[in-house]
Amino acid sequence: MPAPIRLRELIRTIRTARTQAEEREMIQKECAAIRSSFREEDNTYRCRNVAKLLYMHMLGYPAHFGQLECLKLIASQKFTDKRIGYLGAMLLLDERQDVHLLMTNCIKNDLNHSTQYVQGLALCTLGCMGSSEMCRDLAGEVEKLLKTSNSYLRKKAALCAVHVIRKVPELMEMFLPATKNLLSEKNHGVLHTSVVLLTEMCERSPDMLAHFRKLVPQLVRILKNLIMSGYSPEHDVSGISDPFLQVRILRLLRILGKNDDDSSEAMNDILAQVATNTETSKNVGNAILYETVLTIMDIKSESGLRVLAINILGRFLLNNDKNIRYVALTSLLKTVQTDHNAVQRHRSTIVDCLKDLDVSIKRRAMELSFALVNGNNIRGMMKELLYFLDSCDPEFKADCASGVFLAAEKYAPSKRWHIDTIMRVLTTAGSYVRDDSVPNLIQLITNSVEMHAYTVQRLYKALLDDISQQPLVQVASWCIGEYGDLLVSGQCEEEEPIQVTEDEVLDVLEGLLVSNLSTPVTRGYSLTAIMKLSTRFSSVNRIKKVVSIYGSSIDVELQQRAVEYNALFKKYDHMRPALLERMPIMEKTASNGPTEIVQTNGETEPSTVEAKHPPPVTQPTNQANDLLDLLGGNDVVPVIQTTIPTKPASAGGELLDLLGDLSLSGGPAPAPAPSVPTSQPPFLLDGLTSQPLFNDIAAAGIPSMTAYNKNGLKIDFTFERANPNPNIAVITIHATNSTEAEMTDFVFQAAVPKTFQLQLLSPSSNVVPALNQGTVTQVIRVLNPQKQQLRMRIKLTYTHKGSAVQDLAEVNNFPPQSWQ
């Protein structure tokens, strides 16, 4: 049989192929020749054939038929055969295939070989693809080689020990004595691998971490020698002595110093030295500085050292390299909560990054800018962020608008500034804002009584300029319907009033009804606004005509509104002024919680139960049934989601028996417990009178609790007692989100045993803001007439980073005061 072609010739031939099909044909032809050679047990050219097979494997062609040939090469006495055999084993074999166990004995023999290079090949292979069985069998040989005086073998043995520990963590203690001596080695290769081994052991075992903390002074000495040593051509990289070893030592110090005062104190000086002496003109120096900053931030370092670290990140923001700027912004975002004032010093540089062309840098800069907003810089920061909102790409507008809304709500210096800011967002990015922005702005405008004339005038002007931004048009329509009389009368004191007639206002609203840009929701707002103006304007006949036209609209929602409004004109005209009077003040902060004093725009105001009428949440049958058997058996009562209707105190009787007919089996509802007095209806909203709904939390003395904490979502429960019925426990949930992305479509559901009755009110929002920048609250009322221990199953659904998340949890550790 002729000698097979060499590897170099095969590569040259394959590269001449002009098409994929031609290349496949060449590979198939060569594979056939290699198979024939393997079948004939040709020992002369086995090494060459396996080498060619490995090249084909690298090109993506199947080469599994060469696995046993690799084992034959490993068993050979020739070094060249062993080298190709071990290389083939690392590429073609892994622990999922039983064939690899056949080489265990060969590796054991080669680990005890007289030639260091053969030992090195065996160590490399074991460290690359050794299974847990092989690691157990060969750990003793690896530990022996760790103690040898040969630095070439010690560095390979250290890396092999890392693999052994990952596969079989219980063998860690075997390497403990040998590991201590490795740090006294002068060879940088051995030092580097020993630091890697120490890091692995500390990360996997708290006991090892505590044991190796005594090595901190020795690591500090090694790092100091690296910094102070002169030029060494063997280790020098861009003027810095062995930066790879420096980075590894800094990472190990970060692990050893975390949550340990003594270790942190021992490394403070050397970290300051590295931070001040490292050259920053080259990327190598920046890499070391970045690791130094991470170490300073993770350990219990001094405040001056933390400021130095943040100043280094500030210098990174001025670097021309985009990767360095991105890394700096990401690191500052992580530290802004703990070192807010130090990061504030670099605010102007961070804001400049909003103008960067790189979208990743812009996004990080935007997130960090919102994290830096506080009551002192709100005006300046909002000016920059609104300018960014004007010019940014569409994918940024939604997040930026949400951030502006949250910051304005939290830190607004005045109500006028708050209203102006939100209107600016609506005019520039109205199509991108979240769904809850419209009711939030309406609530804000309603509560700012002194700003009504100014607001309706501004919105009317905005409506004349642009009707394409639907959220803006909806808010403007609502305000014109509520305060159209103020617009026509020209009572605005904050700016020069405009002269508008009733017909001009109605022309604008009618134009919205027929505009192709208007959505069905917007048309509903416009029609309702026109109807409200029938009690504020004198043009009642024109309004009647417009309303009657839409009684035959193809839009069912619009048609229903028009028919009902027509009925008001014809049958209930005497009730129309009362029904269409101005909305009362609404407080979002207490829409489903107790009355309390809240801070709004720098002014303290008492919050009351929200008077807004959100649409009731309809719970589909199949969704409610998801919670039926959560607690097991048939003793579960599902939740009813409802809203708080705004009715006079005398209407309390109409709110009774909310849950009376609720039964999972479809039969009649269980009779109320005899312990409930007959003079009081045993339902969740009983006793709804002019008295306060809830007792003060502090007076109740019921401790709060954490019901759920997973994947960045935290649910806390606070408790109150309903007044006057002590059998009702009022639980307020507080949902916060510590991740970097907001959680949307948030739904909280609950189920309790049948001996209880449960009512779940509407949430304050369906979006949980990122980075704990806001809280979603929701009230649960539980009737417990028999004073039994409270048990609850909760179901959470939300969307996070584009993925739908659903989770169930059981809550059994309620404080006794909440149910006794």
UniProtKB/TrEMBL annotation:
Location of the region described as Disordered in the Swiss-Prot/TrEMBL record: 594-618
Subcellular location: Cytoplasmic vesicle membrane; Endomembrane system; Golgi apparatus
Main location: membrane
Limits of the GAE domain: 700-815
Cited SUPFAM superfamilies: ARM repeat, Clathrin adaptor appendage domain
Claim: Membrane is one of the keywords in the record: yes
SMART domains for this protein: Alpha_adaptinC2
Keyword entries, A-Z: Cytoplasmic vesicle, Golgi apparatus, Membrane, Protein transport, Transport
Membrane topology value: Peripheral membrane protein
Domain of life assignment: Eukaryota
Protein's GO biological process: intracellular protein transport; vesicle-mediated transport
Family per similarity comment: Belongs to the adaptor complexes large subunit family.
Name of the featured protein: AP-1 complex subunit gamma
Species of the source: Poecilia latipinna (sailfin molly)
